[in-house]
């Protein structure tokens, strides 16, 4: 079977058309901030997020930064005023970190609570010499205590030979 120049050019046109439509469908620049917000259809709230820069940001639904704390969270946790003596704007974050992004998971030295202005209200360093070693979850309990998941180094004799 012989392929003619017409058939080959038809295939080439089809191929280039598919490539062109695929390129148009996949953006190379991704927007940041709020791209679509319909107050009638969305619950109006805030997003609390920590960035690799070591800061924690509170963002409203229009994409505006409401507050920034110079502390990372892994993750940051907004405290409910009902569990915090009515104080608003307090968050749980990492107070002191080891090297690495956000102090690294299980690699932070001290965790604690900061107020709206970033002042440390409470902190905890953990019970081992490495520090808090807080993982990925924590919460303020109704009795005022703070519950957190931490790593506790253990030597397992059967595995350490």
Protein architecture, described:
The strands form three sheets. A four-stranded antiparallel beta sheet has the order 4-5-6-7, with no helix packed on it. A three-stranded antiparallel beta sheet has the order 1-2-3, with no helix packed on it. Strands 8-9 form a two-stranded antiparallel ribbon. The model has no long low-confidence stretch (mean pLDDT 80). The chain is an alpha+beta fold and 161 residues long. 13% of the residues lie in helices and 30% in strands. The protein has a domain at 46-150. The chain has one helix and nine strands.
Number of strands: 9
* Strand neighbour order, sheet with most strands: 4-5-6-7
Total number of helices: 1
Determine the mean pLDDT: 80
Helix-strand pattern: HEEEEEEEEE
End-to-end separation in angstroms reads 70 Å
Whole-angstrom Rg: 25 Å
Main sheet?
4 strands, antiparallel
Multimeric state of these chains?
single chain
Low-confidence stretches: none
Helix content: 10-25%
Structural class: alpha+beta
Query: What coarse outline follows from CA principal-axis ratios?
Result: flat
Report the β-strand fraction as a percent range.
25-35%
Strand-helix topology:
Blueprint: H1 5-25, E1 46-50, E2 56-60, E3 65-69, E4 77-78, E5 91-97, E6 108-114, E7 120-124, E8 134-140, E9 146-150
Antiparallel strand pairs: 1-2, 2-3, 4-5, 5-6, 6-7, 8-9
